[in-house]
Amino acid sequence: MTIQSTWTGSADTYNVVRKQIAERWGEAESARYNPKANCLTFKQWLNNGYRVKKGEKALKSYTFVALKNDQDEIIKTFQRTVNLFYDKQVELIEKTEIN
């Protein structure tokens, strides 16, 4: 798999997701975690030709969103939940299914 996401998270968000992977699939699997290549949003997987397997539950992460005024000054910052899926939770969409 040669997917590259635009992830720009922090060490904190990295560790939040890594811990969830370790709880579900073990420490060895969590060592394989790469937020730029194998843990993406539903839409990112879809855009790369993969779909989330039926019944899979998202890993939860978070990001901070900044609201700015007309002068481009930050007036409010809030936390937003991000739903991610690890590569063990997705499958390749066959070309015959797309047509």
Automatic annotation (TrEMBL):
Q: Where is the N-terminal domain?
A: 25-68
Q: Name one GO molecular function term.
A: single-stranded DNA binding
Please give the superkingdom of this protein's source. Bacteria
Q: What is this protein called?
A: N-terminal domain-containing protein
Origin organism is: Candidatus Falkowbacteria bacterium CG10_big_fil_rev_8_21_14_0_10_37_14
